[in-house]
């Protein structure tokens, strides 16, 4: 039976408070795991990270779609495969084979849910069916207009299942391996998973169980699962602690890892007790145009003029404090191995912008979030566009409201900033720019231009997905970037580089994967390796 390591009397009190506040959880049996027990090398009793924001309840249906929300959910829930520095590795699945359209997975022995019930291929099959009827916040089984890439499945035995897909491609294995498995015995009687908070609503299949969650304060606690089948958790508990100033909280020892401002990086790098994780150009900002509400911008000359109007280097210098670069009009950051140097470059040319825009009598509303760098960037965009003759009204909302408005197309211009630009470009370019696959992800990261279509862009975006040879796929992908830079379906503002710093004497296991640079949002960072 899976058991949770309850490491202090304080945790029991926190859990009772959380349950009283509505954080229902299964009853877990605390093992005989006392303070005098031997711990593996590298293990830490408590890891503390910045909290204070409600990223939703950490289950597949109620977390927010952005990285901090899905990452918390993924601590508690597990998929068949995971990604490390080089590629796909086994997670709940110990092995897999691919034969044509058939992908066969064998579960690890001892796979179980956090309430002690065994996790079998029946749960895998149920999860596919349930997600098809009730799509989770993030659904890798959906592809473009297809509700589910799985045509059918065959349960061979309790540990072996074959998933037969409709049309295999270069992303199929990763997609099949990355959906989170949910317990059939909890969800089969739940008709509305988006509001359900009954027994088992946070019972997952992952290495950590959610033992405390308080939305109003943005507090989370995850406790290690004893005997998790895919490895050993690196921490007894992970706490997301509300802080008003993350840097000050780090200096005071209240949290163990945090982002470091670019202008202070060299100061902290002089401290040999600190470790650093570089996230080169991983954060990016784009300007979406809703062409249905602003059809005049279907004139490519006006989109070129918007590029000319924007002093994007000022965003890098003034907002990012030099830690970043002007974005490529082909969308992919210049540091990516997929980047094409043949993309069109758009220089800051305010005179040309005024000549193209000043007599058009244009006015737009610019939607932005009211947090982070978003307002500062939006104000710089407003200043530049108004200097070129376009009246701009900035409307800012909390990030959740802004995201929902972007998802619903409730905007004219929208500034969207998100991490993950250093991830896997073949996936995100297709889901942003292909007229078949865009606007399917349920979050603003994957929302493409509304009211704009381009058959050639769509053809290339879909073709690279079907190509399994890396060099051939890269060639198609670079051609796609150049076309995007020429056609300007959206405006790329800038990419921000950042660093996380941590105390090496507390925990030194933070890692990036080949497809994701955010170490704090990567569940392998919380496993002994």
Q: Any key phrases for this structure?
A:
529 residues; alpha+beta; five-stranded mixed beta sheet; 15 helices; 18 strands; globular
Task: Describe what you observe in this structure.
With 529 residues, this protein is of the alpha+beta class. Helices cover 27% and strands 23% of the residues. It is built from 15 helices and 18 strands. The strands form four sheets. Strands 12, 13, 14, 15, 16, 17 and 18 form a seven-stranded mixed sheet that branches. Strands 1, 2, 9, 10 and 11 form a five-stranded mixed sheet that branches. Helix 8 (300-309) runs antiparallel to helix 10 (350-357) and helix 14 runs antiparallel to helix 15 (470-487). It is globular. Residues 5-36 have low confidence and may be disordered.
Overall helicity: 25-40%
Secondary-structure-derived class: alpha+beta
Tell me the overall shape: globular
Low-confidence stretches: 5-36
Gap from first CA to last CA: 23 Å
Strand content: 15-25%
- Rg (CA only): 24 Å
Supply the number of helical segments: 15
Whole-number average pLDDT?
A: 89
Number of DSSP E strands:
18
- Give the biggest sheet: 7 strands, mixed
